[in-house]
Amino acid sequence: MTDQIWLIGFSGTGKTRLARPLAAALNWASLDLDKVIEREAGDTVAGIFASGGEGAFRVLETQAVEEAAQRSNVVVATGGGAVLAEANRSAMRRRGFIVCLEARPDTILSRLRGGSGAVSDRPLLQGHDPLSRIVAMKAERQPLYDQADFTIDTDDLTPDEITHRVLAAFRERTTVGAGGA
Ligand code: S3P
């Protein structure tokens, strides 16, 4: 049974933005893991990094992934580093269809600069040269992002087009795959 869709990918690839329309099309719930973590911690992601470091954030993130993995009929937008822990990857895989949203580093930077979530909200992208940080961190994580069931390049697509393509892939793969090993 595949009754979850997990959105993975680097910051600024549109995971948060896609979760809601995708869930609405399926009549499912949507969940944004960073928001769940902030609610449960009573602090912002930046605040958690500042007080407890990345390690503290990753512990909370793994708890949030495990909680989300218990749910049915849910689209989960993860944070860009949620794929780093093997425990998270296997929790996503148990019942989930995993979708990786891709974008070029320059697209990512301009989205983070122009959108609601600023570069300053991303503790790991601080420093004088965020583009180089994005290139390096993304390259390091790429083998993990590449484990997704379906990958979509979002640079030149509208949010509607992305929603439709992900839905089509989900329906096609989970029907064709139903009952198979
Ligand atoms: C992180 C990405 C962020 C957030 C945290 C760590 C990462 O989420 O979880 O700042 O390690 O890439 P977004 O992908 O929504 O920016």
Describe this structure in words.
Helices cover 55% and strands 13% of the residues. Helix 5 (105-114) packs across helix 6 (130-145). It has helices at residues 15-26, 33-41, 45-68, 86-95, 105-114, 130-145, 159-177; strands at 4-8, 29-32, 74-77, 96-102, 150-153. It is globular. Mean pLDDT is 93; it is low at 177-181. Strands 2-3-1-4-5 form a five-stranded parallel sheet. It has one domain (4-172): 3-Layer(aba) Sandwich (Rossmann fold), CATH 3.40.50.300. The protein is built from seven helices and five strands. With 181 residues, it is α/β, with parallel strands linked by helices.
The overall pLDDT average reads 93
Spatial strand order of the main sheet: 2-3-1-4-5
Total beta strand runs: 5
Overall tally of structural domains:
1
CATH topology: Rossmann fold
Helix and strand topology:
Layout: E1 4-8, H1 15-26, E2 29-32, H2 33-41, H3 45-68, E3 74-77, H4 86-95, E4 96-102, H5 105-114, H6 130-145, E5 150-153, H7 159-177
Parallel strand pairs: 1-3, 1-4, 2-3, 4-5
Bound molecules: shikimate-3-phosphate.
Residues 11, 16, 34, 45, 79-81, 122-124 line the site of shikimate-3-phosphate.
